[in-house]
Amino acid sequence: MKEIPGPPPVDISELVRAQDRISFVYLERCIVHREGNAVTATDDRGTVHIPAATLGALLLGPGTNVSQQAMVLLAESGSTAVWVGEHGVRYYAHGRPLAQSSRLLQAQAAAVTNQSSRLHVARAMYGLRFPEEDVAGATMQQLRGREGARVRRLYRAHAERTGVPWTKRDYDMKDFGSGNAVNQALSAATTCLYGITHAVIVALGCSPGLGFVHTGHTRSFVYDIADLYKAEIAIPVAFDIAASDSEDIPRDTRRAVRDAVRGGHLLTRCARDVRQLLLPPEEVEDQDWNVVSLWDGGNRTVAGGTLYEEDIPW
What we know:
Elements: E1 22-27, E2 31-35, E3 38-43, E4 46-51, E5 55-60, E6 65-66, H1 68-77, E7 80-84, E8 91-94, H2 103-112, H3 115-129, H4 140-162, H5 181-203, H6 220-226, H7 230-242, H8 249-263, H9 266-278, E9 293-295, E10 301-303
Parallel strand pairs: 1-5, 2-6, 5-7
Antiparallel strand pairs: 2-3, 3-4, 7-8, 9-10
């Protein structure tokens, strides 16, 4: 039999779990190709090798030229390729998931389409931000009010800590450079956080569009999950960069976010939080999900890969 041309797919045993991967790598103005099981980035300074199996998200900025083989490797490795704009602050598209099971996706869809379970998950999300408070009986309006007050306090506290003047969150999506230093850094830090959480969500097999607090957008669930960590990562990083007299705010912000993500073990926490929000406690640590079944009506399933001719009643 004639061999299939091209490099063989990456073996599943070689892949790294989503929570154990490098958070993200941002590239711009280079040629992205493949060498073995590594993605290569080449410009006039030389070539850098990036192990695809350990990468969470590859953020492809302006001026990147990507080969078909590089994209094949990223897809087979479960690494999410995210196409972003200048400074890495706009999102355009993403790649395919690492997960082979739809269990989390089904749990997400079931929870978001039932008002009671949706409210339960939304409250749990806010509960992660207010661990010292009982949010079990709070309405969505009350939770939004608490969150708004918390974020305003954080902005004021970090402004006082760093000496950076602060009035309000003010930015123009069409003109990144028109914002002041702290607003530019907030935009850059937030976009990095979106890329990271998007990579985890897609790697786990969830839908980025089925949000519980946010709704109506293809990345509603990304915004939901990213909001769990903005106060810890994006806001303090942005004020630190604004106070540092940085000559390249987007670059320095990306590096600071990456350090904070690594130091705070964010990928591990993000994967754990998504599972805990969507699954019953007894299923959170269950990883044996690579199973294909056939729906048998109601809540029943039967094994896939089997002929069931004897069940035909005629």
